[in-house]
C-alpha cells in the first residue's frame, strides 16, 4: 500500500510512487487516448547513421515530449538539475537534463508519416533496418541546426520506460567531464554501477587496461580496430580537433577515477 509517509518522501525526492523506478510508457493507442489530442507531424534530419553518411529528412508522428512527461510523471517533472532517463528495450539509456527541453523542442514519436514502417532504414553496420518502436525521442534539428553536430546523442529509440532522476547525484554536482561521459558513453557503458547495462564491463577499468594510445584509437574510429563493432565513433559531427580533445579529456577522467 502506498502510505502518506511514502507519498511525502516521494514528493521530497521529486519522483513518482515507485521512487526513481522507471515508469512504463503506455501502448500507443492508450497514449493517444490519454493525451486526448491528435498526434502532430514532426520533420527532422535523421541523425542516426544511415547508409553512405546520408542525412535524410523524415516526417514522424508523435507528441511534444514535455506534454507526455507531464502526463506520465506529473506536473512536478521539471525540477532544476534533474534528468529524465529514457530506457530502451535493449538496455540503452539516455539521460537528458530537464533544462534541455526548454532550449530545444523535442518529441516522442511512434510512427512515420505515409508509411507503416517505423524503422531506421539501412542502419549501418547491421544493414537491415532497425525497429524504432515503441517510441523514439527526436529533436527539432531543422529549426536548431546546431543540434546536428551532436549526432544521435539524446535520440534514444525503442524507448519503453522513463524515469525521473532527481538532481542530487545526477546532473547537480557533476563536472563537465562527468557530464560528457554521461552524454556520450553511459548510454551503452557503465562506470561504478552507473549507466547502461548494454555493455556489462566497467568502462573505467577497460580504459585503464587499454592505456591512452589504444583508448584514443578505439574511441575515435572503433570500426578501424574492429570492423563489426556496435560502437559508434565519438561525436561524429564535430570537427576533428574537437573530437580529439573530447576523447583526451574522457581518457584522463576515466583513467583517474578511483576504483570502487
Ligand atoms: C551505442 C553504444 C555505445 C556507445 C555510445 C559507446 N560505446 Fe564503447 N563500446 C560499445 C560496445 C558494444 C563495445 C564492445 C566492443 C564490441 O565488441 O563492439 C564497446 C567497447 C568499448 C571499449 C573497450 C574496447 C576494447 O578494446 O576493449 C572502450 C574503451 C569503449 N567502448 C569506450 C567508449 C567511450 C569512451 C565512449 C564514449 C565516448 C563509448 N565507448 C560509447 C558500445 C558503445
UniProtKB/TrEMBL annotation:
One of its GO terms (molecular function) is heme binding. It comes from the Bacteria. The keyword Isomerase does not apply. InterPro entries: Cyt_c-like_dom (IPR009056), Cyt_c-like_dom_sf (IPR036909). Residues 167-254 form the Cytochrome c domain. Residues 1-20 form the signal peptide. The keyword Heme applies. Keywords: Heme, Iron, Metal-binding, Signal. This is Cytochrome c domain-containing protein. The lineage of its organism: Bacteria, Pseudomonadati, Pseudomonadota, Betaproteobacteria, Nitrosomonadales.
Amino acid at each position: 500500500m502506498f502510505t502518506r509517509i511514502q507519498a511525502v518522501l516521494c514528493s521530497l525526492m521529486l519522483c513518482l510512487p515507485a521512487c526513481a523506478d522507471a515508469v512504463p510508457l503506455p501502448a500507443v493507442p492508450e497514449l493517444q487516448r490519454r493525451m486526448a489530442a491528435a498526434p502532430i507531424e514532426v520533420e527532422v534530419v535523421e541523425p542516426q547513421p544511415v547508409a553512405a553518411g546520408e542525412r535524410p529528412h523524415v516526417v514522424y508522428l508523435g507528441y511534444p515530449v514535455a506534454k507526455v512527461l507531464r502526463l506520465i510523471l506529473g506536473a512536478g517533472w521539471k525540477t532544476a538539475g534533474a534528468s529524465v532517463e529514457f530506457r530502451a528495450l535493449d538496455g540503452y539509456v539516455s539521460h537528458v537534463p530537464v533544462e534541455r527541453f526548454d532550449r530545444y523542442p523535442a518529441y516522442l514519436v511512434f510512427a512515420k508519416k505515409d508509411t507503416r514502417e517505423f524503422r531506421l532504414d539501412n542502419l549501418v553496420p547491421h544493414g537491415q533496418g532497425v525497429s524504432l518502436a515503441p517510441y523514439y525521442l527526436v529533436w527539432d534539428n531543422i529549426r536548431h541546426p546546431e543540434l546536428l553536430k551532436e549526432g544521435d546523442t539524446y535520440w534514444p529509440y525503442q524507448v519503453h520506460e522513463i524515469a525521473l532522476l532527481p538532481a542530487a547525484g545526477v546532473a547537480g554536482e557533476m563536472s563537465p567531464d562527468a557530464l560528457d561521459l554521461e552524454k556520450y558513453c553511459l548510454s551503452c557503458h557503465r562506470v561504478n554501477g552507473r549507466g547502461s547495462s548494454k555493455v556489462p564491463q566497467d568502462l573505467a577499468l577497460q580504459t585503464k587496461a587499454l592505456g591512452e594510445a589504444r583508448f584514443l584509437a578505439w574511441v575515435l574510429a572503433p570500426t578501424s580496430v574492429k570492423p563489426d563493432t556496435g560502437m559508434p565513433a565519438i561525436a561524429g559531427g564535430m570537427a576533428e580537433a574537437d573530437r580529439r580533445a573530447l576523447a583526451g579529456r574522457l581518457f584522463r577522467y576515466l583513467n583517474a577515477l578511483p576504483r570502487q
